[in-house]
Amino acid sequence: AANSVAVGDLPNLIKSVHAALAGLGAPAAEPEVKQEPAVSVRASIKPDYIVCLEDGKKLKMLKRHLMTHYQMTPDAYRAKWGLPSDYPMVAANYKELRKGLALKIGLGRKARVVQPVPVAPPAKAARKPRTAKVAAEA
């Protein structure tokens, strides 16, 4: 194009064009929008299920859902939503059911100390009398 630029303004023009071109490759900084929970924190805990604050799904176990769908650990989830560290990741009734099954098959018990049965030392074999052949050699 036939634009006229003063010689003194040429370095500033080059700098501004360079800055504009360099900014094209960088992603635009999006203002971080605070996400609203699907339900209130208080309403998310029920005896039979836990409601995910990300998507509102009713789940018995939240940990696997968070990792597979959102790549979040329970600690990251709690930090994102400002939840206490004791916020449950498993529904209360489901936890009790699993606890009952575990106790039924014997998990959670301390190992019993088995008293060893005293073993009597083996009785020594009675000495055999010498035979005549052995007595003659001696």
Protein topology:
Blueprint: H1 10-25, E1 50-51, E2 58-59, H2 63-70, H3 74-81, H4 92-104, H5 132-137
Antiparallel strand pairs: 1-2
List keywords for this structure.
138 residues; mainly alpha; Arc Repressor Mutant, subunit A; two-stranded antiparallel ribbon; 3% strand
Annotated CATH topology of the domain at 34-104? Arc Repressor Mutant, subunit A
- Please give the share of residues in helix: 25-40%
So what's the overall shape?
elongated
Class derived from helix and strand content: mainly alpha
Instruction: Return the average pLDDT rounded to an integer.
Output: 86
Question: Strand order of the main beta sheet, please?
Answer: 1-2
The proportion of strand residues reads under 5%
Helix-strand string: HEEHHHH
Separation, N- and C-terminal Cα atoms: 132 Å
- Rg is 40 Å
What's the total number of strands?
Answer: 2
